[in-house]
Amino acid sequence: MTMRLRMWVLALGGLGAAVLYVLACLGLPSFGGDRHPSGDRAVRAALARHTANTVSSVNFDQRALDTLGEESILFGSVLGAVVLLRQTRDEDRQQPEPARVAPSVRRYALFALPVTLLIGLYIVAHGQLSPGGGFQGGVVVATSLHLLYIAVDYRALERIRPLGLYEVADAAGEAAYVLVGAAALLAGWAFLGNFLPYGTFNTLSSGGTVPLLNAAIGVEVAAGVVVLLARFLDQAVEIASTDEEAEDRA
């Protein structure tokens, strides 16, 4: 196939996609109207499965397979950062020198750390009941741990951040999501189908598989963000060249 023919194929494909996009937009309900077919269906499905938070019902039930893809993007990003930013044999990693922290900053950060951690865990645990969920709560949990870096120093953060455990937790969160989907297959449902009892509406045990998938996302996001930030923070390194490499450059 010549370059000119390829350009024609690309142009025709782009034109076809544009036409379909315009036709889809013309079929949308008018802005500000009282007709919301997609939203009405999502709310009905959420209430039928005893999930108070419709957004969580959409994310972890009605389109749980799409959420698996989103989670896998973060997991792949963390894995790529770990591989690309790993320490090589030519790098001599130096411990950063502690910097003076203003007393007011120290007090505020140490006070905010447990509060932020508790809020993050609350957001994850109540993901099927109130706004938020595993994605948002996981980021808040990871952020709370790094307040120790602001309040004290990097060494204090390292003491509560064993990277090996967080890397295992990152993989475990990803695997747990897939295993819940596989359990649905064993129960005779579709992959990631909501096969568990729906429980009592507006309680922590409601929503069937929604709280399980939400918790798996929370673990994966929290651990993944911690590992990702650790790899970037650890880039305060000094590359020590060997005598042979120095001679070669000379």
Automatic annotation (TrEMBL):
Give compartment(s). Cell membrane
Q: Does the keyword Transmembrane apply?
A: yes
Query: Membrane topology type, per the record?
Result: Multi-pass membrane protein
Q: Which residues form the Na+/H+ antiporter MnhB subunit-related protein domain?
A: 106-226
Q: Which UniProt keywords apply?
A: Cell membrane, Membrane, Transmembrane, Transmembrane helix
Going by the entry's taxonomy, the superkingdom of the source organism is recorded as Bacteria
Q: Where are the transmembrane segments?
A: 72-88, 108-129, 135-154, 175-192, 212-233
Question: What PANTHER family does UniProt report for this protein, alphabetically?
Answer: NA(+)/H(+) ANTIPORTER SUBUNIT B, NA(+)_H(+) ANTIPORTER SUBUNIT B
Q: Which family does it belong to?
A: Belongs to the CPA3 antiporters (TC 2.A.63) subunit B family.
Task: Name it.
Answer: Sodium:proton antiporter
From what organism does this protein derive?
A: Streptomyces siderophoricus
Q: What is the lineage of its organism?
A: Bacteria, Bacillati, Actinomycetota, Actinomycetes, Kitasatosporales
